[in-house]
Automatic annotation (TrEMBL):
<dbReference type="Pfam" id="PF02810">
    <property type="entry name" value="SEC-C"/>
</dbReference>
<dbReference type="InterPro" id="IPR004027">
    <property type="entry name" value="SEC_C_motif"/>
</dbReference>
<dbReference type="InterPro" id="IPR036255">
    <property type="entry name" value="YgfB-like_sf"/>
</dbReference>
<dbReference type="Pfam" id="PF03695">
    <property type="entry name" value="UPF0149"/>
</dbReference>
<dbReference type="InterPro" id="IPR011978">
    <property type="entry name" value="YgfB-like"/>
</dbReference>
<protein>
    <submittedName>
        <fullName>YecA family protein</fullName>
    </submittedName>
</protein>
Length: 222
């Protein structure tokens, strides 16, 4: 697999594929994917690719019916390469970390669109247990949730233009601080204990496999 940042054309291809297969449950663009991957990399617990790749689309029942296996594999490989680039910046070059915000032209001006990235970040947060975050850092998470949580975004309606711009400026440092904290204070994933069936089956009892035979005549000797 290739490493390093994706090219502009590779990011555009990812965005086109996401748009092509997007549903009400999935992410909607490459900016939201970038935010989600940032939160996954900042998680207090490791999240397996098999889990977060499903979450990208909103669950197993929403995974695309890919046009070809090549398209599927190319999407996964580019996503993993992009994730590796984000991880390198977060871990080793935080001064080079930049959220992949969207842009929109309005009245001849290019506006920064942060909502999709923040919604993606909060999707990633939901995949792990972020409880126990110190209050000081909860404020940092709230700075992202302000633009990525429907219950909190209503507060933006009361913001002046300057306050709105200030809230945008808080997102990048908040993401860096949250990543640094959880890397220094990771959580141990709970170990699932195997379920044991303590009840013993007698030799003359019906076999638990459901064959209708006695246990001694069925599975006892297996």
């Amino acid at each position: 697999m290739k490493t390093g940042p994706l090219t502009e054309s590779e990011l555009e291809w990812l965005d086109e594929v996401i748009t092509k297969y997007a549903t009400d449950k999935s992410i909607i663009d490459v900016s939201e994917l970038d935010g989600m991957l940032t939160a996954i990399l900042s998680s207090p617990q490791e999240i397996e690719p098999a889990d977060w790749l499903l979450a990208v689309w909103g669950g197993a029942d929403s995974v695309p019916r890919w046009a070809t296996e090549r398209e599927r594999d190319h999407f996964i490989n580019l996503t993993l390469q992009h994730m590796g680039d984000i991880a390198e910046r977060l871990n080793d070059y935080p001064d080079q970390f930049e959220p992949l915000f969207g842009t929109r032209e309005e009245e001849g001006q290019e506006l920064t669109i942060v909502e999709e990235w923040c919604y993606g970040y909060m999707r990633g947060v939901a995949l792990s247990d972020w409880s126990g975050l110190p209050q000081a850092l909860q404020t940092e998470l709230d700075a992202i949730a302000l633009h990525g949580d429907e219950e909190k975004t209503v507060a933006l309606d009361t913001f002046t233009a300057d306050q709105y711009l200030e809230s945008i400026d808080k997102i990048r440092p908040a993401a860096l601080m949250l990543h640094a904290y959880w890397m220094a204070h990771p959580k141990v994933a709970p170990v699932q204990q195997p379920v044991r069936n303590e009840a013993k089956v007698g030799r003359n009892d019906p076999c638990p496999c459901g064959s209708g035979k006695k246990y001694k005549q069925c599975c006892a000797g297996k």
